[in-house]
Write a structure and sequence with these properties.
Elements lengths: L4 H11 L9 H10 L1 H10 L8 H12 L1 H11 L4
């Protein structure tokens, strides 16, 4: 599954930390969360696909790097506790 340019731009504009931000952990996790429904079905049929789970590790990176940004992001996305 891929996003159209417009869908991707909407997600990026909602989570970027500055005007030209496209690579921050917040943006990357937000893009991944848009794919959650697809990934859920994908992992049901391909349980050993660990490569696709890499994006979830970015959330752990942000947690270790900047806890306040992590808390804001998970609150905004409505994921985790």
């Amino acid at each position: 599954m891929s996003f159209s340019k417009a869908q991707k731009a909407d997600v990026i504009s909602g989570y970027r930390t500055h005007g030209t931000d496209t690579g921050s952990p917040e943006v990357q996790v937000a893009l991944l969360s848009e794919r959650i429904s697809y990934l859920t079905e994908h992992f049901k049929t391909h349980p050993k696909d660990h490569h696709s789970r890499r994006g979830l590790l970015q959330l752990e990176y942000l947690k270790g790097k900047d806890l306040s940004r992590y808390r804001v992001l998970i609150g905004k996305l409505g994921i985790r506790k």
